[in-house]
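Record type: monomer structure entry
Structure origin: computed from sequence
Chain ID: A
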Amino acid sequence: MKTYVAFFRGINVGGKNIVKMSDLARLFAELGFSGVKTYIQSGNVIFSTDAEQSLLAPMIEQAFNERFGFASAVIIRPGEEIASIVGSLPFDETEIERAQTANPDVEHIYVYLSEDVINAEEINQICARYGGEDRYYLTDREIYLLCQQSVRDSKLAAAFAKLPQPLTSRNLKTLNKIIQLL
């Protein structure tokens, strides 16, 4: 039995695509997963299964669509991978501190997760046109973003949200809480 985290994209955002976490947890239990826990309303589900990882996202997406009546991309990551993602933050303390000092009331570090390998050429072209102070770092399946102000004001974050490849983002606080729950 292996533990995974499912990260849903675009649910409970701005009053749209509303899904109660208790209903989402029930769906996971009905799919035969064990140890199901949810965290906050953005669609983070911890669960365990013997099923192959490659089968999980399509199975969950189909069941989700049938149950809730709309599609939501889901990114699946093994539980132990989440600590590695957080442990690999590419920004130094000075950069992070500068952003936090400029606006201490918001989260500054976000990780965009992808189920598939990210199109690095596309991301780099988008970022080359960006003239702001936000910084990013790209790996095979993650984009790390350090926002100098709020993510809501980040032109880079807005560009990432419009990519055709399904990505979902979580801030560092959320990822750290998921690590605790694991």
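Annotation 1: Residues 53 and 123 are 26 Å apart (CA to CA).
Annotation 2: The chain has a mean pLDDT of 93.
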